[in-house]
Design goal:
Layout lengths: L6 E6 L6 E7 L5 E11 L2 E8 L4 E7 L8 E4 L2 E6 L4 E6 L7 E9 L11 E4 L2 E6 L2 E6 L4 E7 L5 E7 L2 E8 L2 E8 L4 E10 L2 E7 L2 E6 L4
Parallel strand pairs: 1-19
Antiparallel strand pairs: 2-3, 3-4, 4-5, 6-7, 7-8, 8-9, 10-11, 11-12, 12-13, 14-15, 15-16, 16-17, 18-19
Length: 217
């Protein structure tokens, strides 16, 4: 029987409205970029592109009213949640220094959950999206695989993926927990980690889970 060992590391969150994402993109040549989204105004979101040295390459204002930093990178496209219209937008980032919106309403998603630190992740050609009722699975070509892939969640607001495992932050009356699920929709452990406080987001690297928590000195 295979035993999975995970460590939880709590880190202080300085800017909960932002989410940085990086990855290798295939264009005219491989390049590694960082994308940061923040609130740009009542009817917009600011999306900035940096190189791995921290140099600003582009700053663009997008007409997403409630994007809040929820983005996923797949190939040469960013997929972003617009919480106001309950849709996933597709954004082209194939050319360094150039950001272009392909489709503001690429995939309509009912009751999308737009947590400040990530309501969407990508794995290969699949997108896993948090909704008020659980986790939905879609493809990067716009098809719905299963809008109710996982329902054993409670007020989910942040998601991370590693291989075939999905980790979700759930909120219940002021208490945050981490649930573990599979990309095929099975519940591994809905209460993998419990008793967390004011948590903002979750990320995973190897066998470590990183939980962003506010209010730490």
């Amino acid at each position: 029987m295979k035993t999975k060992r995970l460590q939880t590391v709590t880190v202080k969150t300085f800017l909960p409205i932002m989410l940085a994402m990086s990855g290798l993109l295939a264009g005219s040549g491989l390049h590694a970029q960082i994308y940061v989204a923040g609130i740009g105004g009542a009817e917009s979101t600011a999306l900035e592109e940096y190189d791995r040295s921290g140099n600003l390459l582009n700053s663009t204002t997008l007409s997403f009213t409630e994007m809040g930093g929820s983005m996923a990178l797949a190939g040469t496209d960013l997929f972003a949640i617009d919480g106001y219209t309950s849709a996933i937008a597709e954004i082209s980032v194939a050319i360094p220094g150039t950001i272009g919106v392909i489709n503001n309403s690429f995939i309509p998603v009912s009751d999308v959950s737009n947590g400040a630190d990530g309501g969407i992740v990508a794995s290969g050609t699949d997108l896993f999206v948090l909704t008020g009722g659980g986790i939905g699975e879609y493809t990067t070509s716009g098809q719905t695989v299963n809008a109710s892939l996982v329902t054993d969640v409670n007020s989910p607001f942040s998601i991370a993926i590693s291989g075939s495992d999905i980790f979700v932050l759930n909120w219940d009356n002021g208490i945050t927990s981490v649930g573990e699920y599979t990309t095929s929709g099975q519940t591994v452990n809905a209460s993998l980690i419990t008793g967390l406080g004011d948590v903002q987001g979750i990320a995973i690297s190897g066998t470590n889970l990183y939980v962003g928590q506010t209010g730490l000195d």
